[in-house]
Amino acid sequence: MPLEDGDVARRRGQHINGASSPGGTWDTLHQDVPAPNGSRMEVMAEDHELGPALGDGDTSAGWGEDACGALQRAGKEPAQRGAAGGEGALMAELSERVQKVVKSSSWWERHGVDICILTCSFLALPAGFLCLRSAQAVPFLAGVLTLGVVHHTLAVKGSHLASHNALTESKSWGKVWAVFFIELCSAFTAEQATYNHVKLHHGYTNVIGLGDSSTWKLPFLNRYVYMFLAPLAVPIITPLVALDLLRNVELKVALRTVCCVSLGLYCHYWLLLRVSGFQSPWSALLCMLLTRSLLAHPYIHVNIFQHIGLPMFAADRKPKRIHLMSLGVLNLPRNALLDWSFGHSLISCHVEHHLFPSLSDNMCLKIKPIVSQYLKEKKLPYNEDTYAARLWLFLQNYEELMVHAPPITELVGIQ
User: Transmembrane region positions (predicted)?
Assistant: First the structure.
């Protein structure tokens, strides 16, 4: 949704006490919390309900009024929330509505659409590598663009769906796809990615010290370096962080991860030499860096835009699930390139994804009108903002949002 003015943008970023901590849809890159195997911390995510209805509804309730006031009103309206059930009754009612849509949806809607997008990306790989053989600028740039989009579709969209087992209803195949997309395509470790993202970030969204994705912060970098230069290093940092995290997993898992990550990187390098015709190793490596960082800027931006500046909570005072997600998650507008490469659940349906994380991107888009209408009915926030407005907000308030510790949001009438 477009911003009304600059003041509104600032208020949106400071929504409820100006809470600030970077969060992510796929916040495994800098996460250093140990894996379940031999972990120093035991946390369990709250139960995640399943959920999907049609279209990309544009309904929004979030930024027009103060969310704290909305919560106070919600706390004073037991008729809406149920005298005994409270917040749990709200989530149960929404889950029931969403579940009806899921049950009435075909396999194509639940999984087929997203599998088709990933398959088309695979099929575009030969064209991308062959275009790089050209000495002319236009075909060569077309090859870079093709490989860059394909890489991010597989590494971001594929990995994200696989981590939530949203590509298939088989848990066994889900593990296979997680290893393939996260380790082979993304050069990360599947166990750590799933644990940090699904168990921590989703189970404790915007809860300080658990799911606030605070490791996205790099306070020693200034705003322009962080926002515009640092993302170029993502392809280099990712496998290095993965190797460091392997200390927390079993030996056989570590060996598998090293083999898969090495195989994925070497295949990319070998194809550039043998198919694309690069003459030197350095030119091939530079092309690898270029294609793998093509969409790194929106990747980093999306991860911080959709949680930072929203309410943050202490672990012992966090609200129930529906309030936690409606307050601490934000949707960006539809964007053809990012929808294809990252998926709806990371862009325009992030609220829906956090409420029903096991649904595919297409199903999150399908339930969007149901979720937005329900939250509006219950006087709960439904946060939406534009990419440009969030970028400007971060550039204007970088010190407050990315450097200083976030204040804890106090909720009245909800605890």
Answer: 224-246, 253-271
Task: Say which residues have a Cβ less than 8 Å from residue 138's Cβ, sequence separation at least 6.
Answer: none
**Three-state SS at 31:** coil
Radius of gyration of the chain (CA): 21
Averaged pLDDT of the chain: 82
Q: What pLDDT is attached to residue 408?
A: 83
Q: Is the pLDDT of residue 393 over 70?
A: yes
CA distance 404 to 413: 28
- Helical axes 87-104 vs 361-377, angle rounded to 10°: 140
Determine the residue type at 270. Answer: W
Burial call 49-87: b when 16+ CB within 10 Å, e when fewer? bbbbbeeebebbbbbeeebbebbbebbeeeeebeeeeeb
Q: Say which residues have a Cβ less than 8 Å from residue 140's Cβ, sequence separation at least 6.
A: 131, 132, 134
Alpha helices in 1-112 (DSSP H): 6-13, 15-18, 67-75, 78-81, 87-104, 107
Give 91's contacts (C-beta < 8 A, 6+ positions apart): 49, 320, 321, 322, 355
CA geometry: angle at 233 spanning 9 and 14, to 5°? 15
Q: Is the pLDDT of residue 41 over 60?
A: no
Band (86; pLDDT cuts 50, 70, 90): low
Distance from C-alpha of 243 to C-alpha of 240, rounded to nearest angstrom:
5
CB contact set of 412 (below 8 Å; sequence gap of 6+): 68, 71, 72, 75
Residue with tokens 């594929």: 158
Structure tokens at 325: 């997600």
- DSSP characters over 352-405: HHHHSTTS-HHHHHHHHHHHHHHHHHTT---EE--HHHHHHHHHHSHIIIIISP
**From CA 198, how far away is CA 370, in angstroms rounded?**
24
Residue 405 tokens read as: 């510790």
Spatial separation of the C-alpha atoms in residues 35 and 196, rounded to whole Å: 8
Alpha-carbon distance values, 372 to 216, 339, 351, 376 (Å) = 28, 19, 9, 6
Q: Can you tell me whether residue 30 is helix, strand or coil? A: coil
